[in-house]
Design a protein that fits this description.
Elements (H helix, E strand, L loop, with lengths): L5 H8 L5 E6 L5 H14 L4 E5 L3 H4 L5 H12 L4 E6 L7 H10 L4 E8 L2 H10 L4 E5 L5 H8 L8 H7 L1 H14 L3 H5 L3 H24 L5 H11 L8 H8 L3 H13 L3 E6 L13 E4 L2 H8 L8 H20 L5 E6 L5 E8 L2 E7 L11 H10 L3 E6 L4 E5 L2 E7 H4 L6
Parallel strand pairs: 1-4, 1-5, 2-3, 3-4, 6-8, 10-11, 11-13
Antiparallel strand pairs: 6-7, 8-9, 9-10, 12-13
Helix pairs in contact: 5-6, 9-15, 11-15, 12-15, 13-14
Length: 417
């Protein structure tokens, strides 16, 4: 069993009246997480019922709210209990259905999950405004991955493990960058078995999620766009160029990119700028939710990435660390590019105060920074900056900015000021 960090947050939220809504990519572990919550509740004497809309025999109970309530009362009675509903996106008008249940002021706590779908990320959020808290379950993150791989021996002092066993730490990083964090992939030992599972996940995504959303069976142009996006993580995305390459309209490219975001395949970040005439155009950058899925789309899954690839994979990896540190806060994550091609990988903007973060897949033994990074410091004079790498920790003062050179595992514990 792979321990998930979000489990404790969900446990604490079980006492809250609002709906606990667990969202994330298909096969990220939502059902397993809900079953663990169910076991935890039943161990403490609480009554529960678990319904899954992917199971045909359970769908009959969702014909109406009254029908569902009759099923709940039959299973756990009219007193307090917890109702688990898995794969809610299968229910038409799911948001209104759940809103109606919540507004009845029933004695039941609702814990609901759903995989990536437009219905889930748009209509349910809108319908349940003020009635739910969203918990986004990603695929296995690096800390969860390392703890599982080391059998939780260093769970309480993981940074010390990283510091002492550099060779094993590097091996684990390379494995994670190659295979990603889908639970079923992580749990398999043989590369061939990992590849078969990822093939199944990839085809399921295209054939179930995308074919259903687009209303078509053939998704060649969509698949081609996924491959193109996989080849340019960390690079500016020009919709016009993609349109010409794929021979489809720019409007269709934009629609497809939107679907990819709504189904937890890619994430978009926009440029940081104050002077729109000097900063580059508003072309965004995209990163993949899961590196294994990205590598499979590109045909690189299961092989050791070439050195030129590792830099972009590492950058995507650091993006997720940055995102985890800034979620549920007022901080926005951007990147910085100028017309003369100066660039900084990530710029955190918290109410006008900025923190630049540069990423290098190198073993830096002494403080070194690019001309672009220095250009950002001289232009915006931030209090704090970071350069994340795989070498030694150090620090340097540049005018009024303190620049911390951190190995990525130290960045895991760093507070972002």
């Amino acid at each position: 069993m792979i321990k998930r960090q979000i489990f404790e947050e969900l446990k604490e939220h079980l006492d809250k009246k609002e709906i606990s809504l667990i969202v994330g990519p298909r096969q990220a572990g939502k059902t397993t997480l809900m079953m663990l919550l169910k076991d935890h509740l039943e161990a403490s004497g609480k009554k529960t019922v678990f319904l899954n809309l992917d199971i045909e025999s359970d769908r009959q109970f969702f014909v109406s709210q009254n029908q569902l309530l009759r099923k709940i009362v039959l299973e756990i009675g009219e007193d307090e209990g917890v109702v688990f509903i898995d794969e809610i996106q299968r229910k038409e008008d799911a948001g209104l259905f759940l809103k109606g249940l919540f507004d009845m002021n029933l004695p039941y706590k609702l814990v609901v999950s759903g995989s990536g779908s437009v219905e889930l990320k748009e209509k349910i959020h809108e319908s349940l405004a003020g009635r739910k808290r969203v918990f986004e379950l990603s695929t296995i993150n690096f800390v969860e991955f390392v703890n599982y791989k080391t059998e939780y021996r260093y769970e309480k002092n993981l940074c010390e493990f990283f510091e002492l066993d550099r060779e094993e730490t590097q091996r684990l990083l390379e494995e994670y960058l190659s295979f990603g964090g889908y639970p079923r992939v992580v749990l398999e030992q043989r590369v061939e078995d990992k590849r078969k599972i990822m093939a199944e996940l990839y085809q399921s995504y295209l054939e179930r999620d995308i074919s259903m959303l687009l209303g078509v069976q053939k998704t060649e142009s969509f698949t081609a766009l996924v491959r193109l996006m996989a080849s340019q993580i960390g690079n500016l995305v020009n919709v016009s160029e993609l349109s010409k390459t794929l021979r489809i309209s720019a409007a269709t490219v934009n629609d497809y990119l939107w679907y990819m975001q709504k189904t937890f395949l890619i994430e978009k970040i926009t440029p940081y700028f104050k002077n729109i005439r000097k900063e580059i155009t508003k072309s965004p950058i995209y990163y993949f939710y899961d590196l294994g899925m990205r590598n499979y789309a590109l045909g690189n899954f299961g092989s050791v990435p070439i050195s030129s690839e590792m830099g972009f994979l590492f950058q995507n990896f650091i993006y997720h660390l940055v995102k985890s540190k800034t979620e549920n806060s007022a901080t926005q994550v951007h990147f910085w590019r100028t017309t003369d091609k100066a660039e900084v990988d990530f710029v955190l903007d918290k109410l006008g105060e900025v923190v630049p973060i540069e990423v290098k897949y190198k073993k830096l033994t002494q403080p070194m920074m690019t001309r672009s990074y220095k250009s950002f410091l001289s232009k915006y004079h931030p209090k704090q900056g970071y350069l994340i790498h795989i070498g030694e920790e150090s620090e340097k003062k540049v005018e009024t900015t303190k620049v911390s050179f951190l190995p990525y595992y130290k960045f895991l514990d760093a507070g972002l000021s």
